[in-house]
Structures are given as C-alpha cells and as structure tokens.
Amino acid sequence: MRKNRTSAPNWKTTLGGTLLSMSLVISAVPSMALADSISVQEPEAQVQTQVLTPSAPAYALTDSIQASLKSLSVSKSADGTRIGAVVRLHNNTTQMKRVPDYEIRVKASDGSEYKITPSASNPKSMLAMENVELTGMVTVDRQDDITLTGMSFVEVDEYVYPKQETVRLTLPITSVWNTAKPDITDPSFVKAWGDTFMVPESPSPIKFTPSSLSEQTDDKGVHTQVVTILAENPGKASETVPGFRLDGKAGDQIFTGKRADTNPIVLAAGDRKYIQYLIPTDKDIKLDSLLLMTTETFSASAGAAGSAGGAAGAAAGTQSTTPGFDVGRLKINVSEAAVTLPNTLPAYTIGTPIAFDPLNRLMNSGTQVSLMELHMHENTGSGFKSVVAKFRLQNKSDQTVTLPAFQTELLGSDGSSYAGTRQTATAANLMPNLSYVVSYSFMVPASEKGEQLGIKLLDNLTSAPYSTTIAGFQTAVQVDNVDSSEMAFYPFNVKLNDWTLSAYTNPGLPITYSYKLKMDLNVDRVEDVVVDANFPKFTIELVDGLGRTLGSQSVPFTGTGMLISGEQTVQINNIKTEQQEYPLTIKLYETIDTPNGEAKRLVKTLQQ
Question: What is the CATH number of domain 59-178?
C-alpha cells in the first residue's frame, strides 16, 4: 500500500466573499471634516476623481482553484533574512475542495530558491466559493540584499526515486515589502491627502478618508502625531473595520503607529465614524507621508524543522504564534492640507451659530454655540498678549442637558497653535431654553496682530487624552475703543457717564492710604443670558506714573455688591505706597479666573 504523502498545508479563512478584480476609490473630501465639509452632495453636483486600486491578479492553479499573491515581505534580523508570504486561493466551484498539497517556493534574482514553511494554522480544505489564505515564512542565513523575482507552486512526489517535482503554477512578483527600504512608489497605491481609499487586498467595503493631522503633547512631554480618519460603511450590512495601523514617514525615519481604540470597531450599514491613529514621534517632526500597514500572523508548530512537511505534519500538535510580518499596503502623502491654517478654515461672523461636525460625540444636537466676543490685550512688560474668547451656549431643547466641556485652540496667522484655558468654574447643566456664557483665554506672542486667526473647538473627552476637532473657523479680534464711554462685557453694555477719584488717609499707624472711585453708570443687559458667580468681573486697577500697579478691586455683575446703573462707589484699599500719588491712571478690565491664573482684558483707560 502506498504511504500517505505529507499532509496538505493548512489554510486560514479570510472574511469571505469573492475576490474583486478592481476596487473603485473616490476622492472628493476636503482636509478638515467640519459640518459644511462632510455634508453629502447630490451626485450630479459632486466633482469626483476616480482612482482604481488594482488587486493582485488571479491565476488558475487547478481547474477549480485560482491563486493570487496577497503579501510578500523581506526583512533582516540578527538571524538572517526572513521572507514572509501570503497566497490567496479561491474555490470556483459549488463543492468543498481539498487544498492542493503543493510546496510554495520563492526564487531570487541570483537563482536561489527557498521553500516557504507554512503556518500551522492554515486550513486544509475550502468550502464552496470560499477564499482562503496560506501564510508561510522562511529565514535564510544571509545578510546581503535578496531580490525576489518569482513564486511557484510545486507538486513533489517523494515516494518515487528519484523524487519528482512538477511546477503547477508560477506567479510573477511585482511588489515586495522590504523593511530595509520602507516605501511605496507604485502610483496606484499612493494617495493624496483627502483621497478616499479602501484597504488593498481586503474584502472589507469600508472606505476611509484622511481628515486631520495634529501634533499633541501629553503631560509627560511625549509628542504624538494624531491622525483622524473618517470611516464609512457604504454596504447594506454591518462591517468590522479592518485591522491596520498607520506609520509615519519623515525622510528616512519611520515612526510606528497604532490605532487609539484597540477594541473591534463595527460600523452599521451606512454608518460613519472617526477613527484615530497615534504615531509617537520626536519633537518638531514633520511627517512626509503615512504608511498603511497590515500584519500577517504566523503559527509555528512545536518542533517544526523549518520545512513545509515538518510544519504540516505537526499541525495537530502544539502551536506557537510568532509575531508574523508586516506589509505596507498604501502610502498617503501628507500635504499642507493636513495642517490647518487660519485661511483654510471657513469664514465666521461673530454672534452667529458655529457649525459643528455632525459626527461629533460631545455636543448635544439641541445645544447651539456662538462666539460673542474675541478681544486681544497687550500685557505691558510681560512679552505676550492675551486673547479672550467668550462663547454663548444655548439650550434649544425642552430638556436639561450637560454643559458641553469643549476645549479650544487658537491658530495664529503663521499657523502656530495656542491652547485655550477655560474659566475655572462653570455650571454643570444647561436649563431648557436658556443661555450660558463660557470664557477662554489664550497667551500669544507680542508680535501677533490678530487680523487673521483661526479657532478650533476640540473634543478632548471622547478619546482622552487625545483631542479631536469638532468645529473650526477663521475670524479676527475685535478692536476695543478704550476712549469710548461704552464698554462691552457680553451680555452687558456698560456706559460710563462720569467719574471722580479721591484719596483718603486710613486711621492708625503706620499711615496708609485708600482711594474711592465714584462712577455714574448705565448697565444694560443686551440679551437674556444666565449670569452666575462664575461670570467675569469688572476690575479697577490704579497705576502710578512709573507704571506700577498700586492696587485693584473687582466688582461682580451679579450677587452682593454687583455693578448697577446710577452712582456707584468702589473702594480700593491696601495701596502699595507710603504717600498719596498724583496723577494716577485708572485701568478698567474684564477679568476671568482660569486654572493658569487671572486673565484680563483692558476695556478702558482713565487719566486723572
């Protein structure tokens, strides 16, 4: 009786579905996915660029099975050169088929030939119309460059002498991922920023579009490039997002990335979702491109001798999973469109509702946000300016909602970004049909003119500690007329009709002085907005002729001692001087308490 031949290599099942010969990729999405930039357009109005991403061609292995080369990788280590390969087979029939018992070999340009050791987890049979994949690896004890030129399926009959080898199929090799030269030059697999793509050699119908790229630094000083990708499922059934990572490339440097959410992500039919990828880099690294990487797994059999027969014969025994190998699938060029500049953001009119990304997970649909004030103040002698932004949050619904705790970022005219500091305390909830004001302050260089600024609103809770842009616009600071009698403290307008400043001596020793500022005011509330103890204050500051601050006093807009219409006297004690000073300059500020200290905006200057 003839002995059984070496059992067939095992095969691993893919996600299923027939192999598509071509994948249609459409690119027409701008760099920043804001509410107005990701809205669905009518087909006849949409300008589309069609980019065909070819899949590997399939060849007849038998009369019922087709074969194609999915992945081929060459990497070097201390042990030598490792070659990894994945071959996809497709059963064309409506019946189960046994996987052919063929060796897979690769050939180098110098004539060398290497047999690929199959993974112990490869399947042995194929269901009707099924796709399966064969994974294999081999390590060669050589450190010189190996150029692979072909792959062959060889039927070996070891039970005759001499043994007979028959080449059943030869596959051409057009692409090899070389970890020593990690790059992709085939134009079919190079995408511009904003192009929509699908993962090559994946049966998943999910489409991906690069949305934003930002450098973020955590509290430990670690610099991370955060890439946000919009994923969309155009199919009619739920789909799991394919597992891949994005590596960053800057010149010859490669920075390994990972997906922020390591849990499986499932998109329902027609669903869209942002996915973040994290790429730790050195400081001030500017990425040239992103490499979409997939990892092929490999299971080695215990005691495998490195041959296909040894691994397959031990398939039923103990298995150990090795790291496998990585393959670069796609390159995404990082252009200036990936970096947000103020002039690339939509124009905005102060006081109007801000357009939020409809996919954001922070803002309630019934909450409307508007920027009501944006002022810049020069801090004399400090080397920087302060920018203060005041946002109105309106609850348009009939239910109480949580006050959204969004973060802000200011973009200077040169593209530099400055994190906003939110006022120290705010209300927890927003009542139905009411409005609330939240202030943010920014420190910018003294050279900033404020004529063309960008403001981004960020969600730093959903993917903490990393943030996602949920809105953005360009605007300019409002110019305060410090000579005008009217002062704006949204939602209040304060008109100063008259004022007098007088000094008096405090009783006791040593002799100290205090000042009284008597003002005749008109205080008008221009809009019905909730004002509580967290609201900014009206602050009076006395400055001597040398520019030294002698003392100050703050007056709230609500509660005890609040600012009112008519005559009001404010007493300024604890003056830092041993004698009365004259003349004094009176500076009127709007002050806000922030975690970084008090932020103030100069609204008026009075000269004694």
Answer: 2.60.40
DSSP 128: T
Query: Does domain 187-299+323-333 fall into CATH 2.60.40.1240?
Result: yes
* Residue 309 DSSP one-character state: H
Mean pLDDT for all residues in the chain: 84
Which residues, 6 or more positions from 597, have their beta carbon under 8 angstroms from its beta carbon? none
Indicate whether 318 pLDDT > 60.
no
The residue type at 433: N
- pLDDT number for residue 27: 30
Please report which helix (H) or strand (E) contains residue 308, including its range.
helix 308-313
- Rounded to whole angstroms, the Cα distance separating 155 from 103 reads 6
At residue 287's C-alpha, the angle toward residues 283 and 291, to 5°, is: 130
Mean pLDDT lowest for which of 7-11, 18-22, 342-346, 382-386?
18-22
- Burial of residue 551 (CB within 10 Å: 0-12, 13-18, 19+) is middle
Residue 537 dihedral angles phi and psi, to the nearest 5°: -115, 160
Cα separation, 125 vs 130, whole angstroms: 10
Pick the CATH number of 486-607 from 3.30.1450, 1.10.3210, 2.60.40, 1.25.40: 2.60.40
Q: What is the 3-state secondary structure (H, E, C) of 417-468?
A: EEECEECCCCCCEECCCCEEEEEEEEEEECCCCCCCEEEEEEECCCCCCCCE
Q: Which spans in 231-302 are helix H?
A: none
pLDDT digits (tens, 9 = 90+) for 210-262: 998 988 887 788 899 999 999 999 999 999 999 999 999 999 999 999 999 99
In 148-244, where do the E strands start and end? 148-157, 164-172, 177-178, 190-191, 207-217, 223-232, 239-240
DSSP 38: S
Q: Structure tokens of 151?
A: 């792959």
Residues 267-298 have pLDDT tens digits of 999 999 999 999 999 988 999 999 999 999 99
First to last CA, the chain: 118
Q: How far apart are CA 276 and CA 245, in angstroms?
A: 10
Q: Contact, 139 vs 79, CB < 8 A?
A: yes
User: 342-475 — its CATH code?
Assistant: 2.60.40.1240
Query: Three-class SS string for 541-605?
Result: EEECCCCCEEEEEEECCCCCCCCCCEEEEEEECCCCCCCCCCCCEEEEEEEEEECCEEEEEEEEE
Dihedral sign of CA atoms 460, 465, 469, 472 in order: positive
Which residue shows structure tokens 């969309």? 232
Cα 528 to Cα 491: distance, rounded to the nearest angstrom: 8
168-218, pLDDT tens digit by residue? 999 999 899 999 999 999 999 999 999 999 999 999 999 999 998 988 887
Q: What's the half-sphere exposure (Cβ side, CA atoms, 13 Å) at 556?
A: 11
- Whose CA is closest to 584, among 602, 567, 572, 569? 572
Exposure b/e, 487-517, CB count within 10 A at least 16 = b? bbbbbbebebeeeebebeeeeeeeeebebeb
Q: Give the CA distances from residue 398 to residues 196, 373, 427, in Å, rounded to whole numbers and listed in that order.
A: 39, 27, 18
How do beta strands 417-419 and 486-489 pair?
A: unpaired
Query: 96 has which bridge partners?
Result: none
Give yes or no for residue 3 having a pLDDT over 90: no
**Residue type for position 188:** S
Domain with CATH 2.60.40.1240 in the chain: 187-299+323-333, 342-475
